[in-house]
Amino acid sequence: MKKLVPFIFLILISITFSQESLDTISGEMMVADSLIVDSVEQINLYNPLLPPNTYTDINNPNYWKNKMPHPGYWQQDVHYQISAEIIDTENLIKGHEILTYTNNSPDELNYVFFHLYQNAFEPESYLDKFRTANKMESIYRPDELKQKGTEILSVKSNDEVLDIEIDNTIMKVFLKEPLKSGESIVLDIVFDTYFGGNEEEGNVRRRMKVYEEFGNKHYNGVHWYPRISVYDRKFGWTTDQHLGKEFYGDFGCFDVELTFPENYIVEATGFMVNRDELLPKELMKKLDIKNFAHKKYNSPPSTIITYNPNKKKTWNFHAENVHDFSFTADPSYRIGVTDWNGIKSYSLAQEQHASKWQNASDYASRIIEVFSEDFGMYQYHKIIVADARSGMEYPMITLDRGKDPGYRGLLIHEIAHMWFFGQVGNNETYRAALDEGFTQFLTAWGTEILEGEYMERDLTYVNDSILDNENTDILARIAWLKNNKSPLNKYYDAHTNQLNAKDDDVFYRYIMDATDNNTPQLNTHSHDFGGSLAHRGSYTHVYGKTAAMLYNLQYVLGDDLFLAAMQNYFHTWKMAHPYLNDFRNSIIHFTKVDLNWFFDQWLDTNKDIDYSIKKVKKLRNDTIEVTIARKGEMQMPIDLTIDSKFGLRYHYHIPNTWFKKEDKERDYLLKRWIGYGNLQKEYTFKQQVPSGVKNIMIDVSGRLADSYMIDNNYRGNMHLDVDWGVKKYANLRKYEVLVRPDIWYNAFDGVKIGPNIRGHYLNKHHVFQANLWTNTGYGRNTDEEDLNENNAFSYRVNYSHSLNKYVKNSKIRFSTSYLDGLKHSSLGYNIKDINGMNNIDISMNSFLRQDDNDLDYLIGENTWQEAGKRNTNITIQTSHRYKYLFPLQSNNFHGTGKISLSLRSSSILSDYNFSTISLSVVNKNHFKDFKINTRMFVQAGFNHGSASNFPYESMLYASGANPETMMENKYARSAGFIPDDWGGGNALYDGNTYFHYGGGLNLRGYSGRKMKELVSDVGPNPDNELFYRGTSGISFNTEIDFTHLIPRLHYFGLNSYVFTDIGMIGKKTSDNENFLTSDIYIDSGIGFTWEVSRLWSRQINAKPLVLRFDLPFYLNEPLDSEEMLSFNRFIFGINRAF
Question: How does DSSP assign 774-791, residue by residue?
C-alpha cells in the first residue's frame, strides 16, 4: 500500500497540471468535475474532456447501457469527427465530417437519414411553403435566394461513393450493405454550409446567422453540419422536415476543429482542448470582461487582435454525452468566468455591451447551482452564455441577447434547457412540451429562488442604444428619454404593475386562454398547433400549459413527493430519449399514485379547471355549511383555507381519489370528493370555526390553474384601485374596479367633469365602463350661449361579457348613454371563428335627440333629421379578414384585407322606415418599400314610403362618415375640439369646410360641398339637386405611402401618401318618385399623418390618435369659382381616412 501512495500522488499531480494548462482563464484553475471523473482508476478508461472517445465506456455513468431507463430500452450511438473552416469573406463553412454510427436497434438498416437544417431557409422549401400557406412574406438573403443552404459534395463509406436522395432538409443515404444490429458504419461526408447572408438582409427567422456590428462579423454556427436522424423505438427513422422550430438528435461524442481568422474569439460545445495555445494568460487578461465595466454601452469596441484573413487559428473541441454541437464567434467577444463545484460558467459579451454583462457568468453559475441541487446535477464541465442576438439553447452553450437585468429571465430559461433538451433528450420535433414546457416550469422555479417573488424590472422604456441610433425618429426620442428623466416614464413606472414569477412565466399566458376555453391538447405534433409559425398562437401553450400542468402536479402530489419524482425522472432519462408516456409512467411508477386521470385531462384534452365557493350557510355554534361547485370539466383535489374572525387560519384538504398528499400545514382532511363529468358537481361539508368565518379561499398557494378565479373566495374577490391610466397586467385572481376622474369639453356643455369607473376580469368577463359627467357650462362657445340651455348631466355605460364557456369566441354587449345631446342604446352579440378571421355581429340600436337643444351639439347644420324622433334599427354585419401573398421574384406582393357585409333595417319603435345593404373591401398592400391601401365601398339604400323615412343621420354621405358614425368618436361627435364652422364634412359651406372624418364614400376632397347638379325634368326641384348625401352609392379609394422617398420624414414621425378617391351617389327625389344618380366625382392629392399616440402608446392605456392633413389638389367637379387643379385646398382629419 505504501508503494501505491507515491504512484497515486504522481498521477494526481499530473492531472492537476494538465488541467491547468488546458482550461485556465485569468489564472484560475479548472477543477475537474467529480461527477464526471469519480476516481483515479477511471481516468484512463473514461474521460469526457479529452480524446479519445470514451462515451461508450462501461465507466461512463451517463451512457444509456450503463443506466437503462427500462429493460429492453435501446438508442443509437454517434461519434462525429468534423473539421471545418469558416470563410468569413464568403460567409461559408467548408466541412469534412466523419461519422461513426452504431446500430443498437434490433433492426437491420438498409439506409440512413440525415438532417440538412439550413436547406429550410430558401425559396420552395417546406418552410417557405408553410409560410406561404400562412400568408407570410418571405424575404430571403442573397445565398438563400440561390438555394445555398447545406450542399453535399460527397458521401462515402469505405472509400465507396454512396447514393443519396435529398428532399429539402432530409437526405437519404443508401448503404451498400445492410447495417446489422450491433454493427457500426463510418460515413465520410464533405459539405459546404452557407450562412445565407447578413441577418438584416432577410426576414425569415434563422438561428444560424451572421451579422455585423462596428465592422466586426459575428457568427452563430448552429445546425450547420449534416446531422444523422434519430432511429428510435417509437418511430424508427424520424424524418420530420425542419420548419424552423424544434430538433432531435442522438447522444454520443463530438470531436470538432473550427478554423477562423485569428482575430475571432470562439466558444462552442465541449472542452476546448487547445485553450492554452489559443487563449494564453496574457490574452485572457486583455479579454477579461471586467476591463470594460465602465465602457459606455454600445460604443465602438477596441481592437485586441488585428484582422488578417491570411492568418488562421484552429479551435479544437471534444464533447461527450451530447447530441449536438454549436459554436459562436466574434472578434469583439470579452470573457467572464465563474466556478461552482468544478463547473465553469463563461460569459461572452461583445465589448460594446460588456458594461451591462458584468454579472452574466456569476448569474449563470447561480442558475446551474439551483437546478443542480433541485432537479439533478449538471453533467457537463461548463456552460456558455453568449451575447449573440438570439435566445436559443445548445449543449453546454446558450446564445442570448439583451443586458442586465432584462436578460436574467432569458438566461434562466436557456440554461434550464440544459436539463430538458440538453441532458434529457426528448423528441421535441414531435412533442415540444417535453422540453419547452418543462423548461418554462424551471424558469419560474429558478426565478423565484434567484430573484424572489418578482424579477427585477428592466426599464425597457429607457434604452440608450435607441438614442444612439441616428435612424430613431423624433417621437421615439421624446418618448424614450435618457436616464428616465421623462415625467411620463416616471409616472408609468410608479403606477404600472408587475406579475410575480409564477404568473409571468406560467399562469398568465395559460389562464388568459383557458378562461376562454381556448387551450390546445398538448399531445399534438409540434408543427400542428393551428399552423402556428415561430412561437405564436396556440403553440405558446407547449410552454405555458405544460408548465401549468407541472405546477398542478406539484399541487396534487405535494412538494416533497413531486420534487423527488422529478429528480427521479431526470436521473432515469438523462442522456436518453423519453416521450410523454415515458414521463407519465416515470411519475406514476415512482410515486405509486394513480395519476392517469390527471395526465389524461392535461395532455389529451382542452378541458379547464373551474371551482367556486358557491354557498356558505351559517349554522349554530359557529358551524358553517360550505358548498363548493365544480364548474369546469377538469377534476382536481381541493386545498381550502378558512380564516376565522379571531385571526386564526385553518387548512383543509379535499382529496379527489384515494391518494392523500403529505402536507405539513394541513389541519383537517375532509371526506373524499369523487366527481367528474356530471357526477357530483357539488360538494358540501360542515365545519365548526370558533369565532366565526372571516373568509374561505380555494388554493392560497396560487398553483391551481383555475380559469375563473373571482369566485374562489367567500369574500375579497374584488380589487378596488385608482385607475392611473397606464398599461397594466390583468389580475388573475380578482375582479378589478378602477376609478379615475374624467374631464372633457365640447362647445355646448363647456367643461365636463365626473368619475370614470371601469371594471373587468381579465378584460374578458363582465367588462364595464361607466361615466357620469357634470356639464359645467364653463368655457362654452359664445355663439352657443346665445342659443339654448345645455344638458346638466351626461352619462355613458358600456358592458360586455365573454360567452366562450358556452359558445367559442362569442360575447354579448350592452351600452346606453345620454351624451352630447344623443340618447343611445345598443344590445349586441358577436361571434368569431376559432382563428378570429370570420366574424358575425348582430345588434339592436336606438338613437334619439329629445328636443331641439340636443341638435345644437352637432358640428354643422342640417345633419340630424329632427329632434323627438326615435331612430331604431337592427344591424347584422359579417366580416372576413384575410392575408395574401403573391411571390414576384425576390419582391413579394403581400398584404392583409377585410371584407365586410352589413344589413340594416329599421325596427320596432322606430319613427323611420328604411333599410340598407353595404359591402366594403379594405386591403393593406405591401410591395417593396411601398404601402398601398385600397378601399372599395358600395351601398344600396331603400326608404320605404316617403323620402323622409330615411333620416339624415343614417344616410350615405359622399365626403365621409355620416353623423351617426361620427358619434362614435369623442373628437368628432360634437363641436368643440373641431370648430363648428369647419362643418364636420357634412355641412353645406361650399368650400369653407376644413374637417374630414373617414367613412361613407370617402370623397374627402368634397368635404362640406353641396355637390349641386342640374337635373332636368325630374322631381319637384329639377334644376337644383344636391348630392352630398344619398341612400346608395359606390366608391373606390386608394392611398400610396411614399414616406421612404422623402429623407428624414419618418424621423419626425410623419407618414406621407398620395390619394385618389372616385365615386358616385344616388338617392330618391323628395317626392320619392324617381331615383337620381350623380355624376362621377374624383379627387386626388397628397396627405400626411402624424401618429401622436406614439408619444404615449408604450405607457398609457388610451386609444390611438392620428392627426391627418390632406391636400386635395385635384377635383374633377370644382366649384364655379375654383379650378380643377388648385393648391389652396386642404382638410384636417382625425385618424386615417380608412
Answer: EE--TT--HHHHTS-PPP
At 321, which amino acid appears?
N
Preceding peptide of 52 cis, ω within 30°:
yes
Which pairs count as long-range contacts for 455-458, CB under 8 Å and 24+ apart, including other chains? 455/405, 455/408, 455/409, 455/498, 455/501, 455/504, 456/405, 456/408, 457/405, 457/498, 458/402, 458/405, 458/406
Interatomic CA distance for residues 997 and 909, integer angstroms = 30
Cβ atoms within 10 Å of 365's Cβ, excluding its own: 23
CA distance from start to end of the chain: 92
CA–CA dist 687, 624 (Å, integer): 6
- The contacts of residue 677 (CB under 8 Å, 6+ apart) are 633
The DSSP-derived string for 1006-1045 is: GTT---EE--TT-SS-TT-EE-SEESEEEEEEEEEE-GGG
310 contacts: CB under 8 Å, gap ≥ 6: none
The count of other CB atoms within 10 Å of the CB of residue 305 is: 16
- The CA-based angle 906-910-915, given to 5 degrees, is 15
Nearest one of 1056, 954, 963, 1062 to 1003, comparing CA atoms: 1062
> Which backbone phi and psi does 1011 adopt, to 5 degrees?
55, 55
Neighbours of 102 (CB within 10 A): 18
Q: What is the CATH number of domain 803-1134?
A: 2.40.160
CB contact set of 581 (below 8 Å; sequence gap of 6+):
none
CATH hierarchy code of domain 431-456+508-606: 1.10.390.10
For 791, half-sphere exposure in the C-beta direction (CA atoms, 13 angstrom radius) is 24
What is the grid cell recorded at 625? 355549511
As beta bridge partners, residue 802 has 811
Distance of CA 1050 to the CA centre of its chain: 26
C-alpha grid cell for residue 607?
378541458
**CATH class of the region 611-716:** mainly beta
Ranges for all domains in the chain classified under CATH 1.10.390.10: 431-456+508-606
- Could you give the residue range(s) of every CATH 2.60.40 domain in the chain? 611-716
Residue 621: CB atoms within 10 Å? 6
**Beta-carbon neighbour count of residue 885 at 10 Å?**
18
Backbone CA torsion sign across 158, 161, 164, 166: positive
Cα angle for residues 22, 24, 28 (degrees, 5° grid): 150
Contact (CB, 8 A) for 25 and 280: no
Give per-10-residue mean pLDDT for the chain (1138 aa). 43 39 34 39 76 98 97 98 98 99 98 99 95 86 96 98 98 98 99 97 95 98 99 98 94 99 99 98 98 96 96 99 99 99 98 98 99 98 98 98 95 98 97 96 98 80 48 56 59 88 97 94 89 74 97 98 99 98 98 98 97 97 97 98 97 98 92 96 97 97 98 96 94 98 93 97 97 93 62 95 92 97 97 92 96 86 88 98 75 86 96 97 91 98 87 96 94 85 54 83 93 68 79 98 84 87 92 88 97 76 90 94 92 94
CATH 2.40.160 intervals, the chain: 803-1134
- Give Cβ neighbours of residue 407 (< 8 Å, ≥ 6 apart): 360, 400, 401
CA dihedral 579, 581, 583, 588 (to 10 degrees): -170
Asked whether 529 and 432 are in contact (CB, 8 A), the reply is: no
The secondary structure of 101-128 as a DSSP string is EE--SSS-EEEEEEE-GGGGSSTTSHHH
CA 196 to chain centre: 26
Rounded to two decimals, what is the model's pTM? 0.90
Beta-bridge partners for 957: 1029
Q: Residue 480 corresponds to which cell in the numbers above?
A: 424614450
